[in-house]
Specification:
Length: about 260
Amino acid sequence: MQIQDKVVVVTGGANGIGRALCHKFAQEGAKAVVVSDVDKEHGMKVSKEIEPVKGGFIACNVAVEKDVRMLVDVATDTFGQVDIFCSNAGIGVAGGPEATDKDWQRSWEVNVMAHVYAARAVLPQMLERKEGCLVQTVSAAGMLTQIGSAPYSVTKHAAMGFAEWLAVTYGDQGIRVSALCPQGVRTNMLLNAEFGGGKFLMEGALEPEQVATEVVKAINEERFLVLPHPEVAKYFQNKANDYERWLRGMRKLQATMLPLKTN
Ligand SMILES: NC(=O)c1ccc[n+]([C@@H]2O[C@H](COP(=O)([O-])OP(=O)(O)OC[C@H]3O[C@@H](n4cnc5c(N)ncnc54)[C@H](O)[C@@H]3O)[C@@H](O)[C@H]2O)c1
């Protein structure tokens, strides 16, 4: 799919990867780029930055289904349709099983259910036209793991599972699905990461603009897997080829990052 003249919606568009996606879609000649986020101040700023491309800012908490439905309805009423929906907002919290239920639940709602709500709201019009593109920002953690954060690892795996399922189920009906799975990207999320893995990821971190370029390439090629860090494909193969060895390697990596808990 080409971006030219398409109507695009980006959640989590106020900062980081989402902001870079909004800029990139605008440069590529989108008809409209709707910036959406809970962060109104920065979201409005991004929508101004990409002018004269239309779209504006729509406040939406992706964890709330009626917000996501409203976002799709307003974008559709204003611009005629939604061609590309980038479900990009996400959160990371630290911890393992001891993380609070609140953190597990928040992670589930923002990192998984938001994609479900987006698909539920936007798929009917795309299926009717037999054309549409869903981009889900997952993470390399959804294919591998996230050192220091079980809620992030688990919910990103679930997001990957949902993206795969959508691609399998609707691929023959004109729906294109792309799953964005980067390692570190220099954004607020990485800079403020509470878990040890965040610092390790900084070393090979990409700029959000580099990631946005890869997303547009994948949309153009109608490709599922978007790996801005190509080495992730190799790690994924290693995991599939020899799970035990991969686990041993990950334990070694973890040992270099986190002090062992003694209590
Ligand atoms: N930065 C990385 O290293 C990295 C790596 C892999 C994947 N990701 C994923 O990329 C996506 C974007 O993250 P980022 O790195 O740009 O971080 P970021 O913190 O810069 O941006 C995330 C944006 O999502 C918004 N947001 C959070 N909760 C929301 C909600 N409930 N409703 C609407 N908006 C909400 C925030 O306000 C923010 O603008 C996330 O899904 C994240 O998991 C990031």
